[in-house]
Amino acid sequence: MKNLEELKAYYDRALLPELNVLETERKKVLEKIFMATLVMVAVWAVFIILALKLSDQFAVFAAISGLVVWYAVFAFLTRGYVSNFKTGVIDKIVKFIDDKLVYSKFGKVSQELFSMSRIYNQRIDIYRGDDYVSGMLGRTRVEFSEIHVLYETRDSKGRRHEHTVFKGLFFVGDFNKRFKGNTVVLPDTAEKLLGHVGTFLQSKNPARGQLVKLEDPDFEKLFVVYGNDQIEARYILSTSLMKRIVDFQKKTGRRISLSFVGSRVFVAVPYRRDLFEPRVFRTVLNFAPIQEYYEDLQLAVDIVDDLNLNTRIWTKK
Q1: In angstroms, rounded to a whole number, what is the distance separating the alpha carbons of residues 93 and 315?
Q2: What is the C-alpha separation between 182 and 226, in angstroms, rounded?
C-alpha cells in the first residue's frame, strides 16, 4: 500500500496538471449553470404566479416540475466535466494504487453477481452503478464498483416511491474454493438490541437458512451468520478469518456484510454519499478530496490483504 507522502508526490507530479485543466472547465460549467438558473427562475416565477391563480395544487406542481427540470439541466451541463474528471483523475488514482487494475467509469458489478451474493433478499426494481474496477491483486481476481439498488412501492394514490436496498461499494473476489452451500455474514442488530429474544428471532428466519452460532465472542457481538451447511460455514469462518473480518469492520467503521457463494467472497460496504464524484461547486485544486477518493478505492483493494485472500490454503475443486 502506498503511503500518504507517495500520494502527495503523485498528486503534484501527475494529477495537478490535469486538475488545473479541469478547474478551468469547472468554472466554465458553473457560468453556464448560473445563466441557466437565472433564466429558469424567471420562467419558473411566471409559471408559479399563473398557477396560483388557478389553485395551490397547480402552484405546487409547477414548483416541483421546475426543480425536476433544473436538475435535468444541471446533469446535462455537468456530464462532460464529470466524465473528463473520472478519466483524468479517478483512472489515474486507480493506476497509482495498482497498475494491473482496469477502471471503467461507466461499468459496474453485474446485477447477476449482486443477486448471487444472497446478502440482500429484497426485490430489485432499479439497479445502478458506475466506477468499476477489475483485475488481479496478487493471485486474486477482483472486481468492485459503486452500486445503488432500489425497489419500488406505490401508495394508495398510485404514486411511486423508491426505497434503497443498498448503496455503497460492492466487492467480489475469488476465494479459490468452490463452496457447496451459501454462507452469509450480516451485521447483528437483533441480538444487540434484544438480547436472547433477538437470538430467538434470528433463528426464525427461514429465508436466510440456518442460524450458525460460532465460538468467537468478538465476532458474535458484531455479526450474525446464516448458511445452508453448518459444517462448511464453520470451516470457512475459521478463527483467523473471523478476527480479520472483525478488524476490517472496525477499520471501516461501517456495517459491512459478507457472503461466500460459489467460489467467491462478496463484501458490501454501505455509504450514504456518492463515491468518486467531483464537487462541481468547489475547486478541484485541493488535495483533501483526492485523498478521500484514494482512501475509498484503497479500502476495496485492502479487502484482499485484510481477508488474506492471496494465501491459497485451499485448492479449487
Answers
A1: 33
A2: 8
Q: Is 96 within 8 Å of 10 (Cβ atoms)?
A: yes
Residue position matching grid coordinates 426464525: 204
Name every residue whose Cβ is closer than 8 Å to that of residue 299 and which is 6 or more positions away in sequence.
169, 252, 269
Half-sphere exposure of 92 (CA within 13 A, CB side): 19
pLDDT tens sequence across 146-201: 999 999 998 888 888 899 999 999 999 998 778 888 999 999 875 444 444 344 44
* Reported pTM: 0.86
Query: If you average pLDDT over every residue of the chain, what do you get?
Result: 87
Evaluate whether 182 touches 199 at the Cβ level (below 8 Å).
no
Long-range contacts of 149-153 (CB under 8 A, 24+ apart): 149/114, 149/120, 149/124, 150/124, 150/125, 150/126, 151/122, 151/123, 151/124, 151/125, 151/126, 152/125, 152/126
Pull the grid cell for residue 177. 474454493
- Tell me which amino acid residue 254 is: R
Exposure string for 78-93, b = 16+ CB within 10 A, e = fewer: beebbebbbebbbbbb
C-alpha cell at 178: 468452490
Please answer whether residues 265 and 117 qualify as being in contact, where contact means their C-beta atoms are separated by less than 8 angstroms: no
Q: What residues does each domain of the chain span? A: 4-178+265-306, 183-261
